[in-house]
Structures are given as C-alpha cells and as structure tokens.
Amino acid sequence: MPTSAEPYPRSVLDLLAVAGNRPVFEHGARTVTGSQLLGLVRRIAAGLRRAAIGPGDGLAMMLGVTPEAFATMIAGYVVGARVVGARPGLSDSQLRHVLHQGIAAVVTDAATGVEHARRTLTVSELMAAPDEDGPLRLSGRPEDVARLVYTSGSTGTPKACAQTYAAMNAAWTARPAAWPPAIRELASRLRRYLVFGSLSSQVMMEYGVLTLAAGGTMVVAEPPAFPEAITKYRASASVITVPRLYRLVAAQRSAPADLSSLRALMVSGSPLEASRLREALDVLGPVVFQGYGQTETGTISMATPSDVPPSVGFPPDVIDIVIRDANGRPVPPGVDGELHVRTPAQAIGYWAEPTETAEVFIDGWVRTRDLGHFDEDGRLYLVGRTRDVIIVNANLYYAGPIERALATSPDIAEAYVIGTPDENTGEAAHAFVVPVADRTPDLDSLRTLVSERLGDACVPATITVIDETPLAPNGKPDKRLLAAAIPRALGERATGG
C-alpha cells in the first residue's frame, strides 16, 4: 500500500516532478518535459475548477493522443472528478449510453459540440484559466469513484467498471518499489513507448504511467502502423493485439524491417496460442510479454519472454487467486476451474448496474468467468472462458479449445469460433479462419483435426476462410461482426460452397 496520505494522482505528479527537464512525451517534432507536463496539469486543473468541476462530477474525455490529453486526464483526478474515457469508435447508441450516465461535462480537443453532451469544454479554454497559487490541491475522496472504464461491449452495451480513488492509490503502476518481478523486467525496456489510438484505453494509459515511473518517454505513433512505427520512432516498446502481432511476424518473415530498437511488445486483448507465441519469439526475439487481466481487475499476471508457453506467468504476491469448480469448491493444481480474483486496485462494481455487479463482484472477489489452472510451481494457465460456450445436444463445449485446435494447423494463422442456434442440435459451432500467407487450408482436414482432438460434437458446422479478422474499437476480434456472416456461410454450405 502507498505511504502517502494524499489521494491519487499524487504518485503520478511526483513522477513528473522528479522527471524535471527529462523528456517524457514526444508528439511529432514537439518534446515535452516532466516539468512542462506538470505545468499543463496545473493549468488544466485550474480551468476545471473555474468550470465548477469537482469531487463526484462525471467528466468524460473525448481526446486524441497528445500531451494535453494525458494532462487533462490527470487533471480530472486532481479535482476529484469521476473520469470517463469515451473511446473512439463507439456507436451512436453506445455513446449516448456513456454520456447519459451522470456526465456533467465532456472535454474535447476541438470547439465543436458533442452530440448527447450536456456541456462541452475544450482543452484550450481550460488552459486559458490562470494558474492557482501554491501547491497543487488534490480533491479526490477515497470512497468516491475516480474513473469508469468501459468493457469492450462485445456482448452488447458496454458496462462501466467503477474504480475508487482508494483503489487507484493502491495500484502499483506508479510506485517502482511495489513492482512485481515481471513488471520490473518490463519497465527496464520502456525507454521509448509508443502511444496511439486513445488514452481512454486502460491498457494504453497504464503502460504510459509505468513508462513515466521507469524513466522512459511516451512517443505518439502517427499512424500506428507496424513495423513502420517501430522503425520510424526507434521505439523500444508498444502494446500490440494478437492479430496485429501475427501480421507483424508475417511481415518480418517476408520483408524484415530494422527492429533492433524493440525490447518489449505487450500483447493485450485476447489469448495468444502457444505455438504462435513461440513463432513470434523466434522471429522477433525475446520481446513478447503476454499480459493477462480484465477491466474489472487490472493486471492479474504477466508472462515474460523467458516464461514457458502457454503459461501467463506467476501472479504477483499482492493478487489473490482461487480456482473453483462448478460448485464453488477450490480445486488443486492441474485441475481446471473458474478463476476468482482479488486485487488491491480492482473495481467495486459496474456503474448503475446492480444486477450485473451482484453476479461478478462477490464478497470482495471478482468472478473472472475465465477458466484455467495452476501448475505445481504456481504458474497460471488459461484454457477458455465460461461464457464463450456452445451447447450441442444439451452438452456444453467451450469455443477456446476448438479455436486452439484449428490454430495448430500449419495452414492457419488465426481461428475464431462462435455458437449460434441450430434446429438439429440446439446450437452449433461456426469457425472463421485466417490462413497463413500463400496457403489454402483444406477444410475437410480442419474438420478431421477438430474431430480427432475434441470429438465430433465440436466440429464446426461451417468453416469460413477470411482474409483478415474484423476488430472492435478496442482492438479485439469482433465476434459480433463474424456472427453476422454466419447466415452467408450457411448459404454457401447449402449450395456446396
């Protein structure tokens, strides 16, 4: 636990003060030092106070990736607001949902108004306010919600995970003395960390704060194309999704770029199949860190490049994990069950969603809905999700093992499985596969592969070859878009396609 009695973001402000004249942010030709970024935080916090934004007020951020955007988010915590990141790519209905959940104002880069917003503030007008005299006053109250972090919405309306100021203060990201071993190893590689997309991303922002604490620099990647951005900005680290990692590995095989500056790729968003991880390590070198966590909990575990696939590493001592069977009983090492997790910085529930909260947040624990096990040495392994299931003839099958079976084919780069209603079996599995470059997969061989490994009930009713996986705004594979293609796949099957 932190020793400071002051609320979050004191730890971040201290990092900026210590940085002083060291560059902490690069945006194009512009370099911003720690002192300058701290000055931006002071001015924007003063502007928020003049705009009557204070403790408990909902403050939505619709900002680009700039030093001012980073400073605005930190300033929101300074005044004690409930900071909400409205990520790019939300549908109109999703944005309306976000901005109607007790939002007092929306902060934007431009002067144009925001549809559904009660009030719009711009960064420029906030920065025009006179600075306050004396030490920066922190107004966050421990029990207040400091931020709402929205889940992906891949199953419907995004849910907002509510994290208090006390939880933010308990997080170890900005406190090097509290770093677990895997994070300490990662931090040593964050000299130049690429930021892109949106600082509303929990992962992007957390690694940004970790970069500050590690003495590194956040570098804005425009555009965030790989491997070009790594080469152009001489980046040492970046967040990367599984599909983007696969594409980077393929690009390096066909036309290698100079990635000598690269020290760490933090894989996020979805599981990484063990054979693909080995291939990435072989092609890119010992740079792949596989993080496991949830919006509800933050980071749970992290595998370093030296960890043994498919383990996701050793969870830190400050994180409690119990693996339970379907009856809620703890299971021994080697036995799969559902992970129940308790972390110092976890959310307290879903904002304005009491029913959902009661299902997931139970007696201080978070039901992850993830399946996994420990080995005898304490390494954590993931095997699927309890909700990612297909019920065939009243028997329950998980999509994860089917996806992994398909991905073991040398012809397949990515595989995703979805369950939909079926007149004959109740539900049926449908697979979408991205082939390895210049290869044409034999669909009958893929069906045989699944049958031999998992049984006939797991064989997909259709297997559709796609050129590229559609991604949701958060970078994860968008299974809703894939599901929309299933009727077309069924039609092709009916006609022999």
Can you describe this structure?
The chain contains 16 helices and 25 strands. The radius of gyration is 23 Å and the shape is globular. The model has no long low-confidence stretch (mean pLDDT 91). The chain has a seven-stranded mixed β-sheet. It has 497 residues and is α/β, with parallel strands linked by helices. It comes from Nonomuraea guangzhouensis. It holds the Pfam family AMP-binding. This is Class I adenylate-forming enzyme family protein.
Quick tags:
3 domains; Rossmann fold; globular; GMP Synthetase, Chain A, domain 3; 16 helices; 497 residues; seven-stranded mixed sheet; alpha/beta; 25 strands
* Total of DSSP H or I helical runs spanning 4+ residues: 16
**Percentage beta strand:** 25-35%
Q: What spatial form do the alpha-carbon principal axes imply?
A: globular
CATH architecture of the largest domain: 3-Layer(aba) Sandwich
Mean pLDDT, as a whole number? Answer: 91
For the largest beta-sheet, the strand count, sense and barrel status come to: 7 strands, mixed
* Stretches with pLDDT under 50, minimum 5 residues: none
Q: How far apart, in Å, are the first and last alpha carbons?
A: 60 Å
> In CATH's first tier, which class of the largest domain applies?
Alpha Beta
- Please estimate the helix content: 25-40%
Taking strands numbered 1, 2, ... along the chain, how are they ordered across the largest sheet? Answer: 6-5-3-4-7-8-17
What count of structural domains? 3
Radius of gyration over all CA atoms, rounded = 23 Å
Q: How many β-strand stretches?
A: 25
Give the structural class: alpha/beta
CATH fold call of the largest domain:
Rossmann fold
